[in-house]
Amino acid sequence: MLAWTIYISFLGVLVLMLLPRDAARAARIVALTSAVLGCAVALIGSVEQARQTNLGDVTTIVQIPWISSIGATYFLAADGISLMLVVLTGLAAIAGILFSWNIEKRTKEFFAFYLALIGGVYGVFLSFDLLLLFMFYELTIIPKYFLIARWGSTRKEYGAMKLALYSFVGSHLVLIGLVAAWVVARAQTGVTTLNLLTLSHVAFPPAFQHWVFPLVFVGFAILAGMWPFHTWAPTGHVAAPTAGSMLLAGVVMKLGAYGCLRVAMVLFPEGMHEWQWAIATLAVIGIIYGAGVALVQRDFKFVIGYSSVSHMGFVLLGLATLNTIGLDGAVLQMFSHGIIAGLLFGVVGRMVYDRTHTRDFNELEHMNLGKRLPFAGVTFVIAGVASMGLPGFSGFVAEFQVLLGAWQAYPVAAIFCGVGIVLGVAYTLRALQKAFYSDLPPADHNGQDDHPLPPITVPERAGAVLLIGASLVIGLFPQLLMDWIEPCIKSPMFARLINGGAQ
Amino acid sequence: MNPVDYLQILRLAAPETIVTVTMLAVLAVDLTVLRGRSLTMRFRFGAMLSVLGCAIAGIYAFGRQDHFDLLNGILLMDPQTDFVKVAILALSIFTILISTGGKFTDHVGEYLSLILLGTVGLMFLVSAGDLLMIFVSLELASLTLYILTAFNKRNVRSSEAALKYFLFGGTSAAFLLFGFSLLYGVAGSTNLNEIAHNLAGKSLDPLLLVALVMTIIGFGFKVAAVPFHLWAPDAYEGAPTPSAAFIGAGSKVASFFVLARILSIGFAGSPGSAVWHGYASGWMPVIAVISALSMVLGNLTAIVQSSVKRLLAYSAIAHAGYMLLGVLSNTIPGQNALMFYVITYGLTVIGAFGVVTVIEEATGGDALKNFAGLSRRAPLLALCLLVFLLSLGGIPPLAGFVGKFFLFSAAVGADETHLGLLWLVILAVAMSAVSFYYYLRVLKQAYVEDAPDGAPAIRVPVITLAALVVVLGCAPGLLTRYL
Q: Where are the domains of chain B?
């Protein structure tokens, strides 16, 4: 059933391509229908699987031979982590479409690329064959590029090309590791396979793991925004159209983190142990650096862009702790950040920028947006406190667990993280104050202020409510998702990783 | 040697014979029945006839299951060679189809019959297991390619390109012949199997090394590998676009097939080694160096091109570098990967040139700016271009990606314990990341830029090829089962 998330998205692309050129309204409806259907399938399928099976086990959805000569199969499956990310993708997809309801320029192409991206993301989260996973992973690059280059703003072509090249270089690092791992596994076991489950039992020679692990991990981590390979993220996020930034921060960065966990760490546990300290260090630098840079930005969207780097640092740090609680936190943080970052970008890109046509704090300060766009203000307050990690929202549960895990593994890192969290509070409050609740008088009286800003539309409200609701539900009842994540982390697949590389 | 009668030779060479007869028929019909008719009409009718002939030859070759070695390597036949012939015929059919709208010549009959004659040469080349036969069929194919390049008599660049191609080609043919004669002198035979047998156990003496290098130079020219590539950009740019497609597709398939056969069978005794820290002299290090140079130079030079045909020429040089990886792995999976890659590359490149042909007809040029706003002017054509270029760039789920995966895994898998060829694969992967940039530049014009005012709408899709590229990418088994 879950496989239909992928098929529905690509069917949506097909239908959109067949629509007449100027059918903007129809295009929106088709896109929204596919996204809602996809999300519904994701939710129903996940709940069903959660009821029927142990979520720590990888449940096969479909497995058919594909390219027998290299042992590739069309193998879709899911465990709790995949399910959580699939649901996240579904939610983010709906919200993104609601927030881009106002796209008038070549609407149908916009949504076609959008749904292609969503379909690819679903595919990555559900693939348990390395080649298939890689295929879906690369499939997401092209729509990203066109979404940004065609419908973006500020230096869009530069941002788009940078993002595409970073992604492509990353995925090619992964490809090298993948080919090498395939050959070594064949030499060692005599089995020609690309099945992730089979390969996760192969004990690759330590010397091999030591060089191939960083290759694959960095390849994926580029997309997860790991410092110092994060520079695509702020420029890409800023250049992208609102829905593009929501997806980039919301789910595409998760692709990277998911790949790190599912492929690099599971296949090469000894390599992970060798490089654990390095990853933890880079993650901490990312947390503090991202937050610090966010604190001094003039462009509203850059603040959110750098905050993503900072928050994704928590995911990477959680992965680097290699203990159960840290990994739990990392996975939950993927979900949490996906929701909250989507919301923040929605407010900045759609609610504010599309109305005021500026993201410069120096200009926004004079606009008194807190009064003129109260809904936007309130939404940003909620999103901001969720992002800061206020208890009651998903961010708190996730980052708290990461900190606990880090405290066990690297106490120093946990202390530095505390600094990062304080900085996070600072930049969020600064942005909030400057953008919405500054009491400065209007800069000039050339009539700009007299124009009433268009009111917040229904789709925007719906999107915001959806995301706030998701964050609140998980914040108040974290057990809902922890029940999906914990059995996975404790499953045999991750046992090698947590038990120090031994079988 | 088995005695054979002429009837049997005719039967064994039936596909080639059919194509030859078709060629004569096309020529005759164009000069008699169609005389004085409109250009379009003549092109359509001639193309129909040619396609029909190729299709019959292809079906005949596809249906038979013989193994035969006629006259000690003059005409080798087995299901694999037959399948490669089918692939070459298919590529010729597509080449003919994309040329039908052309206005570059009035000599329709001659043009089509030369393509068919070149196809015959390539088909004999695939079946050749003897140095003499290899040389003769290679020359037959090459000579037709020179003329095809020069075919646009209204364009001075076409003649210039052809002259350049011809001079380089003639020199390289001389090298090849010289290499072959040395090889004959050392081994005492022109048959590849006998050469291998006679050379077995001998050390690599200087004379053999010279023969080896000369042979590789000859073929390096045919496949446009660095440093024998200088003719390629000019030939691709100056030649009528369908001719360039033929040079890039069909001729590559046959050349690579035979190069792999000569090296892996004829020089089986002296492979040497190109693995990291394990160098040993033989043909592998030579191929490895040529491959590395082609990938680096081809991809880096393609970045700065503003003409799409030149860009495709440099990308062809780069692709020759990737393909040499398949030759280098020297294993059965490597051979299969090579053939898969070359055939799908051929389909893709004909498709890309097909799009360029349409653009040229409509806008009068092949510069990047002529592609601006293509997605608005011709959505379907733009989509086809997207498929072709992304496949060349190696993006899944297109055939180019699967081909690359096959090649890379075969090259790394050739030495499982030490991963000796990994260095070259890493280089190839890095360079294919570079290539992504320039393919994306073309697509940016098509999808991101706005169409200039008054740009004509275009509606000639090359859908079949695009569909094939997608299908072969998603289900490569359809092709690999015959290799």
A: 271-483
